[in-house]
Amino acid sequence: MCRVPGPTLADIARAAEVSTATVSHALNGTGRIGDATRRRVRETATRLGYGTPGPPRSRTLGIAVTTFPTAWNYAEIAYFSRALTAATSAAHARGYALTTLPADRAADDSWHSLAVDGMLIMDSPRGDPMVHALRARGIPLVFDGIPGDPRPGDHWVDNDHEATTHEVLDHLAASGARRIALQSGNGDEHYARAVTAAYERWCAERGAPALIVPFDVADDQGHGFDELLRGGQDRADAVYAAYDPGGRQLLAAAARLGLRVPGDLRVVCASEDPGYAATDPPVSTVTLDPERTARAAVGLLADLVEGATERTAGPVVVPAALLVRASSLARPAEG
Amino acid sequence: MCRVPGPTLADIARAAEVSTATVSHALNGTGRIGDATRRRVRETATRLGYGTPGPPRSRTLGIAVTTFPTAWNYAEIAYFSRALTAATSAAHARGYALTTLPADRAADDSWHSLAVDGMLIMDSPRGDPMVHALRARGIPLVFDGIPGDPRPGDHWVDNDHEATTHEVLDHLAASGARRIALQSGNGDEHYARAVTAAYERWCAERGAPALIVPFDVADDQGHGFDELLRGGQDRADAVYAAYDPGGRQLLAAAARLGLRVPGDLRVVCASEDPGYAATDPPVSTVTLDPERTARAAVGLLADLVEGATERTAGPVVVPAALLVRASSLARPAEG
Hints:
2 copies of one chain form a homodimer. Chain A contains 10 helices and 12 strands. Chain A folds into 3 domains: 1-55, lambda repressor-like DNA-binding domains (434 Repressor (Amino-terminal Domain)); 56-159 and 292-317, Rossmann fold; 161-287, Response regulator (Rossmann fold, 3-Layer(aba) Sandwich), CATH 3.40.50.2300. Chain A starts with 8 loop residues before the first helix and ends in a 12-residue tail after the last strand. In chain A, the strands form 2 sheets. In chain A, strands 2-1-3-4-5-11 form a 6-stranded parallel beta sheet, with helices on both faces. Chain A has a 6-stranded mixed beta sheet with strand order 7-6-8-9-10-12, sandwiched between helices. Chain A has helices spanning 9-16, 20-28, 35-47, 78-93, 129-137, 161-174, 190-205, 226-229, 246-257, 290-305, and strands at residues 60-65, 97-100, 118-122, 141-144, 156-158, 180-184, 211-214, 238-241, 266-270, 284-287, 316-317, 321-323. Residues 1-5 of chain A have low confidence and may be disordered. By secondary structure, chain A is of the alpha/beta class. The A-B interface holds A 56, 59-60, 71, 73-76, 81, 84-85, 88-89, 91-93, 95-105, 110, 113, 115 and B 56, 59-60, 71, 73-76, 81, 84-85, 88-89, 91-93, 95-105, 110, 113, 115. Chains A, B: GO terms for molecular function: DNA-binding transcription factor activity; transcription cis-regulatory region binding.
């Protein structure tokens, strides 16, 4: 974890009446020392404000989504709203207030003075100025999604996007798809890069063409798919949409182009929106389990803030799950 | 709204090159002045930090639930989690970060230094120390639920709990209930007092006995209802549970006591939990529309922080709705 301003090991050693080596062992969970001693050292360290930006502690954790530092409202997207709900409950259960920043706050410099003891940063891209500033301030960080600029000792929680992407593609192939396209992000966060790389690797291993459509959140009617879905033999017969609205965009495009789902076009969408169980047809979804991810990340962050570093053996990999619905079932037997 | 430290009307008048009377009209939405002037005065006032705790603005709104300043986790209750999700989205849409405080934070004095431009306080009881401290600091406040210590000019968003309670009781009476009990809170927030008073008034007008069972969040099995639901003629044949878990507590109690729902016992619960549509039997619920309430409250608060007081004609009354399910239908015809 990041080292931060505050008392030194020697300060804690004096106050707890032990050696600095014992303090180091107690705080890092190493060595062979008694529980009572470890506890006393921990309590002393916490009392002295060790591992925090220095008293007065704000007893506040922060959350930011830094991929797109614009005015988009991530709280209206199911993955994030569900993650925020779980994170709030987890933070309060540990006695912390939780501050969520609007997406465009990542574009100004207000986080230079943000009063938080620790920060959970979601989908951090490469060259993330907020991460740079918070690291410089020594604010403990936990990432949801491997950070674009990882450092040794970073703590993050993520899914195994390569395994999940391959599971989806194998499922679509098993259901009869021959030309499987990917709708992926144009962002620089790990998720977009990992899903795209896994897709390209999967296609290369099978000599299949890589058909990638950029995600456009504003394209309600899925016009971005028109070229991909037209043109007889060469059109895609399946799409994995890696972002939440993609499934609805695909249903709209298929309806406009007269394609049956799943008969002519199989659809899988990464989404936490239960509404996909009620679309026509219901859309197969990949859930990344944002509640479990957020709880794990907040727990990690609170441990870091409290200097309980032996409990923070990251990274944490949260299982994702493919929920198969009608939109990606095998084409009905013909003839 | 509360007056706060910062520039005076005269300061704004000088900077905007208008009279102090014009400033007052522009900020309060009174008088007959042109839109351009009103806008210029507003912008000047905002630029000077008028109506805020003074620069630097934190561009952060806070939320606290102050009824029970203990370690209960309100974020795990459907009403609050849904309100928080909507409040986060509304705050971010206005460019504000949102800080939610754990329930027990209302018991310490950290809010004396809490870095917020405005605060949304939910279920504020009488003698609320947080409200007292924030009023003293001149922090703009909006209440979800009429505050226990209201002041002229307070801004709040609430439902009409008397009308809703009477609607529920009339529905239960129409479905054949003769001895209708209320499970209500022992808190001092307006909601508990308003629902209880409305129930007692309704009973008094009909010469019906007032049967009130205190809510106990820990009573999963509804043992608190045993006395009420035993004893032949005198037992209650319907209960309105004014708190979320009450419906499940009642189903557990009825099963233990061998009572059929709704045949022997009609149940209505105030809850935002969609899970009540899937219980056996499905439970009739009252929804208070926490999303609409939270959006309205955050909008009011942002207007107050920005000095746009002509938009803040409170109070706002949000309609509640009774959703009738099997648990409160008329007893099947007998004989």
